[in-house]
Each structure stands twice: as structure tokens, then as C-alpha cells.
Design brief:
Layout (H helix, E strand, L loop, with lengths): L2 E5 L2 H4 L3 E5 L2 E5 L5 E5 L5 E5 L7 H13 L6 E4 L19 E5 L6 E3 L1 E6 L2 E6 L9 E4 L2 E3 L5 E4 L4 E4 L8 E5 L4 E5 L8 H5 L7 E4 L3
Parallel strand pairs: 1-6
Antiparallel strand pairs: 2-5, 3-4, 5-17, 6-16, 7-15, 8-14, 9-10, 11-12, 11-15, 13-14, 16-17
Organism: Pseudooceanicola albus
Protein name: TIGR02217 family protein
Length: 210
């Protein structure tokens, strides 16, 4: 897949709108009851980058980024300001934030993920774009050192341990992360006069599967 490991400017994404979407088939029966079926295993996020534009210079930066990605052709990283940490937005990332696996004495590869829980239901989201310099990892509560005890592929979110975690050892991680996205349009309509009057352009961005 064509992807550039570069983040959309955070000064431009701050204030944007968007969030997760699901694809669900709903069939209403003759009795009035419903049958519902989830077509997607994982949610997909959509954003509008246009609403965060505050100045003509912001528009220039947006157009430069858009042109460098060739419109929809190349994906890029996006910071979702409402959901970019393994912990709560106001908390500090810690090595015990997320349980990402349990050791079996032989497996050395673990993938990052984030759990969303409410009541008895939960959803585990794969995390493929951790932010460099924010990752913390622990095995059975003992924090490990990157490049000594483990390495991480920041393009896929996969951790590889130098020594396999012991049987039943908990593997946890904390991190900040980006969303892999692309522009959902091949054109941007900009009118400087309209922008100065408060009419911002619509610049749709959609998550891509990694």
C-alpha cells in the first residue's frame, strides 16, 4: 500500500471534526423486531480537515500537504486529538496501560492494541501507527528497554522481544498513536474571499486499513 510515514500538521488537525463509524445491516421483520449484522470487524474513522483552517497560511500548508500526497494516492498519519493515547486523554502514558498479550515461553512478537470497554461489552482496536518516543512496554509489571529488550516497527505497531516472555507472563504497553488515513477527495475547492468571510473548505479524510 502507498503510504507516507509523515503526520498531517497537528496545528491544522486540532479543531477538526470526525470520529469512528461502523457499517451495520439492519433488517426490520414483519413482527417489528430487527435483525442486525455487523459488516465490519473494526470501526473506520472519518475526519474533516477543513474546519480547522484558521488563516490563509493554514490553507497554503494544507494545499502543500495535499499536493505532496498526490490527493488520494498516498496515505499519511493523522493525530485524532480526541483519541491518541493508550490511556485517558488527560492521563500520562504508562507501561501498564494496555494488555497486548500473554507469554507462552516461545512467542516473541506482539502487536499493539487498545481496549474500549463499556459494561460487559468491549472492542479491541489494532494500533498500527505508534508515535516514536512514546512507547513503554512491560512484562509482568517490569518495564523493558527499547532496542535492548525489544524493538518496534513504528510502521506496523509490532513489537519483537529479544527473549520470549515466560509462560503466563503479562505483556503490557503504553503509547501515543496516530491514525493511518488518506484524503477522501482528489480536489480542494478554495475561495480566499469566502474563507475570509468564514466559509471554510471541506477536506474529507478517511482511515485506511493497514
Amino acid at each position: 500500500m502507498s503510504f507516507h510515514e509523515i503526520r498531517f500538521p497537528t496545528t491544522l488537525s486540532f479543531g477538526s471534526t470526525g470520529g469512528p463509524e461502523r457499517r451495520t445491516d439492519v433488517v426490520t421483520l414483519a413482527s417489528g423486531h430487527e435483525e442486525r449484522n455487523a459488516r465490519w470487524q473494526h470501526s473506520r474513522r472519518r475526519y474533516d480537515a477543513g474546519v480547522a483552517m484558521r488563516s490563509i497560511d493554514d490553507l497554503a500548508a494544507l494545499i502543500a500537504f495535499f499536493e505532496a500526497r498526490s490527493g488520494q494516492l498516498y496515505g499519511f498519519r493523522w493525530k485524532d486529538w480526541s483519541d491518541y493515547k493508550s490511556c485517558l486523554p488527560t492521563a500520562t502514558v504508562g507501561a501498564s496501560d494496555q494488555l497486548i498479550g500473554t507469554g507462552d515461553g516461545s512467542s516473541t512478537i506482539f502487536a499493539l492494541s487498545k481496549l474500549y470497554a463499556s459494561g460487559n461489552a468491549s472492542y479491541t482496536r489494532p494500533i498500527s501507527k505508534p508515535v516514536m518516543g512514546t512507547l513503554r512496554v512491560a512484562v509482568s509489571g517490569a518495564e523493558k528497554a527499547e532496542d535492548t529488550d525489544f524493538t518496534v516497527d513504528y510502521a506496523s505497531g509490532v513489537i519483537t522481544f529479544a527473549v520470549a516472555p515466560a509462560l503466563s507472563a503479562t505483556v503490557t504497553a503504553g503509547f501515543e498513536f496516530d491514525v493511518p488515513v488518506r484524503f477522501d477527495t482528489d480536489h480542494i475547492h478554495v475561495s480566499v474571499a469566502s474563507f475570509q468571510a468564514g466559509d471554510v473548505p471541506s477536506v474529507p479524510v478517511v482511515e485506511v486499513r493497514i
